[in-house]
Amino acid sequence: MEILNQKPSRSPSVVTRKTGDEYIIVPVTGNIADMDSIFILNETGAFIWEQIDGAKSVEEIIGLVVDEFEIDRETATNDVLDFLNSMKEYLIIKV
Amino acid sequence: MRDYSLNIAGYKIKFESASDGPGLEPSARFEGSLVRSRNYDVLVKVHRGRFFLPREAKRVFHAPFTEEREGMIFKRSEEFWDVYRGEGDRLYVCTVFPLEKFMERGTLVFSLKRDIWELWIESGSKNIDPLTYPLDGLLLYYLTVIYNDIMIHASGVGFNDRGYIFSGVSGKGKSTIARLWNNAGARVIHDDRLIIRKINEKYCFFSTPVYDNDKPRQAPLSRIFLIEHGSENEIEPLNGALAVSQVLANCIQHNWNRDIIRNLVNAVTDMCKQIQVFRFYFKPEPSAIDFILKYDSEQKTY
C-alpha cells in the first residue's frame, strides 16, 4: 500500500492537551476554535498522535503500535489507518 | 462621579473619567459591587466621543445581536460587537448598545498585558455607566482571559459548605434548577453566568452582576453538573477528556487567538482533575435536589 510510505504530519490548526492517557484536540479554523467539534483520543489514538511528526512513515508508526500494545500487525494496521483516515477527513493531520 | 471602583468576582476594577470624559454613574446592578480601593487589577479611563480605529486594525471576532426565547436563539441584528487586533498587543472591542436609547457606540482599547484600558463612549447623556450591556460581559470576559479563569454558562448554588454548578446552554434548565434550589433553602449564586477562579489552590465560583438586585456572591466549587431535562433523575459521572470537552463546550469564549484557546483548554483540564463532572438528567421538581444531595453525600470524598 502506497500510504504505508507516507509521512503524516499534524495540522498546525489545532490546540491539544493531554489528560491522563487521552488527548483533547480543538480544531482552530480561521482563528476561531470550534468547541462543538472537540476530538477526544483514547489511549491508542493518543499514542498514534504522539508518533505523528512528519518524519516517521505510516509503516513505522504501525510497528510502534505493535510493540506498544502487543497486538498483531493486522490489527495495528487497521487501527492506524482508521485513525489517519478519520483525522485526515477533519483536516487534523496531513498525509 | 468622576471615579469609582468595583469588586466583581474578586477582580478590582477602577473607572476614572478622563479630562474629556462624562460623569460616571454605575447602574443599580453594580451597587452591591462598589468598593473603596486605591488598588486595581485594571483601570479603565473613560472618554466621551467616537474612537476611530487605526487602519491596520483587523477584525478577528464578530458577534451579532441575538435574543433567546424558549431555549431558541434568534438573530435580531447583524451589528453588535466586534473584536479587532491592532499593532503589537493592542486590541479593540467595538460595540453598539442595543438596549440603550442614549448611548450609540463604545470602543474599549486594551491589551491583555496592560492594566490601564481606555474606553470611548458616544453618548448624549451627561452621565454614563461604563459597564452598560454588553461592555460588562466583555470586560469581565477579558479579565478571565488575563487571569486564566473560566466564564461559564451555568447556574450555581451554595448549600451548607458545598457548592454546585449546573451548566448548560440556553434551554437546558439552569434557571429552573436554580429556582428549585432556592425553594430548598440554598443560596443561589447566580442562575445564568458564573466566573470560576482558582484561589489558594481551591476552586470557587462567583456571580456576575446581571440583575438589579444582584449582590456579590461566591461559593466553593464541589461538583459540576452538565444538565439535561429527563423523565427521571439520573446521574452519570464523566471522566478525563470527555468531561473536559463537555465543560469546554459550555464556556464563554472568543477563541480568535491560539493562546486564549490553549489557556482555556488548560484551565478546564486542570479544573476537571480536581472537580468531578457529572451529566445530570433531571425532572423539574424538588426530587431533583434531594437526588443530588443524596448522591453527593454518598460520593463525597472532599
Structure, described:
Chain A is globular. Chain A has one domain: Arc Repressor Mutant, subunit A (Orthogonal Bundle). Chain A is an alpha+beta fold. In chain A, strands 2, 3, 4 and 5 form a 4-stranded antiparallel β-sheet that branches. Chain A starts with 8 loop residues before the first strand and ends with a strand. Chain A has helices at 43-51, 58-69, 73-89; strands at residues 9-10, 14-19, 22-29, 32-33, 39-41, 93-94. Chain A is 40% helix and 24% strand. The longest helix of chain A is centred in the C-terminal third of the chain and has 17 residues, at 73-89. Chain B is of the alpha+beta class. The longest helix of chain B is centred in the last third of the chain and has 17 residues, at 258-274. In chain B, the strands form 3 sheets. A 9-stranded mixed β-sheet of chain B has the order 4-1-2-5-10-9-8-7-6, covered by helices on one side. In chain B, strands 12, 13, 14, 15, 16, 17, 18, 19 and 20 form a 9-stranded mixed β-sheet that branches. The radius of gyration of chain B is 20 Å and the shape is globular. In chain B, a hairpin with a 2-residue loop joins strand 1 and strand 2. Chain B has helices at residues 135-146, 174-183, 240-248, 258-274, 287-299; strands at residues 3-8, 11-17, 23-24, 34-35, 42-48, 58-69, 72-85, 91-96, 103-110, 116-123, 127-128, 150-159, 162-167, 187-190, 193-199, 202-207, 218-220, 223-229, 234-238, 276-282. Chain B folds into 2 domains: 3-146, no CATH class; 150-299, Phosphoenolpyruvate Carboxykinase, domain 3. In chain B, helix 3 packs across helix 4. Chain B has 5 helices and 20 strands. The A-B interface holds A 15, 17, 19-20, 22-24, 26, 28, 31-33, 35-36, 38, 40-41 and B 60-61, 240-242, 244-245, 248-249, 251, 253, 255-258, 261-262, 265-266, 269, 272-273.
